[in-house]
Design a protein that fits this description.
The complex is a heterodimer of chains A (148) and B (227). Chain A has 148 residues and is an alpha/beta fold. Chain A contains 5 helices and 6 strands. Chain A has one domain. Helix content of chain A is 43%, strand content 27%. In chain A, strands 1, 2, 3, 4, 5 and 6 form a 6-stranded mixed sheet that branches. In chain A, β3 and β4 form a beta hairpin. In chain A, α1 packs across α4 and α2 packs antiparallel against α4. The mean pLDDT of chain A is 88. Chain B has one domain. Chain B contains 10 helices and 5 strands; from the N terminus they run ββααβββαααααααα. In chain B, strands 1-2-5-4-3 form a 5-stranded antiparallel sheet. The longest helix of chain B is centred in the last third of the chain and has 33 residues. The chains are: A alpha/beta (148), B alpha+beta (227). At the A-B interface, β1, α1, α5, β3 and β4 of A face α3, α5 and α10 of B.
Chain lengths: 148, 227
């Protein structure tokens, strides 16, 4: 398991929160938009994911909390009243590791607080190739949602 | 000014005591380094009250956090570093009060909570502590302490002036340039680097802790054993 973060600093966090408010005010938040933003966040981390694979990671976690994608994802979960369970993501990811060596699961998550602290998660399939017995991301193939 | 954040009738954080406290006394006090129990649902830290179910984890208890703090402090020897960064965190509390941003001292409470949860989840966690310590300390401590001494020695940047200047700057009354900007920037860079590392470590421990909570077997290994 390897955990990555979107940049954590006060400025990026504050910017992400401000963006979230603008998206809410303008009624722009849809599942498709959230998915696109999450995929962008993942694509910005491809080198770090490769590094995680080099270190032997079977499952990669990406914590998007301080990124706009994480904030928008949290808002979607709130509005949809849908708990995107990290447990379901883990089960699907472990299944993928066992059954299909052509992909590495990546669990994207975002944390936040309301009346309780929440951790929402969404799993993805990252296509990989093996070069010199070393897994690397296959950047010619798309990263897609992993169904729970 | 927003010293209290509420959701409905539930207080999420209350900074009233922090606002009313003498900042110089706070900075000189070791008491602010220790989270204490306010009641079953709230921890007091830096004279601020935090709702732990909302801000740390829904299953967190005050005892977990206090024990976690003691454990992490002993095992990671965070005392010196935390003291410096906590001092900087007080600036952030002014940001919180004015802009309603999450107080970044919360990150430290989350770190010790998940550190404690992971230490309880697996005997193998002791293999992880050296790595965690390395990530959090690196060379930052000496560098940050050196800057702290320079800041303190500089007449123009005595703590009280610095704090009041920062607060005024936040309120837009004066420009930040009146502070010893070079040292302040360096200080901010070290602080941000450390908080980024704390964020990374905390998120790693959080995932491991939640996996363990959901009945997945969690085993920690040394970095060189991963391949």
């Amino acid at each position: 398991m390897k955990s990555l973060n979107t940049p954590y600093d006060i400025q990026s966090f504050a910017y992400a929160k401000r963006s979230r408010k603008e998206f809410v005010d303008e009624g722009k938040i849809t599942y498709e938009l959230v998915l696109r933003m999450i995929l962008d966040a993942i694509h910005n981390k491809l080198d770090e994911i490769d590094n995680a694979l080099k270190r032997g990671a079977k499952i990669v976690f990406l914590n998007g909390t301080s990124n706009t994608s994480g904030q928008i994802f949290g808002q979607l979960c709130l509005e949809a009243d849908n708990d995107f369970s990290i447990k379901e993501s883990m089960i699907a990811s472990i299944q993928l590791v066992k059954e299909n060596g052509l992909f590495v699961p990546l669990i994207y998550c975002a944390t936040g607080f309301r009346l309780k602290y929440y951790v929402n998660a969404l799993p993805f399939k990252v296509p990989v190739i093996v070069v010199n017995r070393q897994k690397k991301i296959d950047r010619n193939k798309p990263i897609t949602r992993l169904t729970c | 000014m927003y010293p209290v954040l509420k959701i409905g009738d539930v207080i999420i954080w209350d900074l009233t005591d922090f606002d009313e406290a003498d900042i110089l006394q706070l900075l000189a006090s070791d008491e602010i380094l220790q989270p204490t129990k306010k009641n079953e649902g709230y921890v007091t830290f830096c004279k601020c009250d935090f709702n732990i179910k909302s801000l740390i984890y829904e299953r967190a208890t005050v005892e977990d956090i206090i024990t976690g703090w003691t454990t992490a402090n002993e095992e990671l020897k965070l005392g010196r570093l935390v003291k410096w960064f906590l001092r900087d965190s007080l600036y952030n509390l002014y940001l919180t009060r004015n802009l309603h941003e999450e107080p970044d001292v919360l990150l430290l409470l989350r770190l010790v909570y998940w550190y404690y949860r992971c230490s309880r989840a697996s005997q193998s966690f002791k293999l992880k502590t050296t790595e965690v310590k390395g990530k959090l300390l690196k060379g930052l401590l000496k560098q940050r302490e050196k800057i702290g001494k320079q800041l303190d020695a500089d007449d123009a940047t005595k703590k009280d002036t610095l704090l009041s200047d920062l607060e005024s700057a936040i309120s837009g009354i004066i420009k930040i340039e009146s502070i010893n900007k070079e040292l302040k920037d360096k200080s901010d860079n070290y602080r941000n680097a450390w908080f980024k590392d704390v964020g990374n470590v905390t998120s790693e421990l959080l995932f491991a802790g939640i996996c363990a909570e959901n009945s997945f077997k969690v085993t920690f290994v040394l970095s060189q054993q991963r391949l």
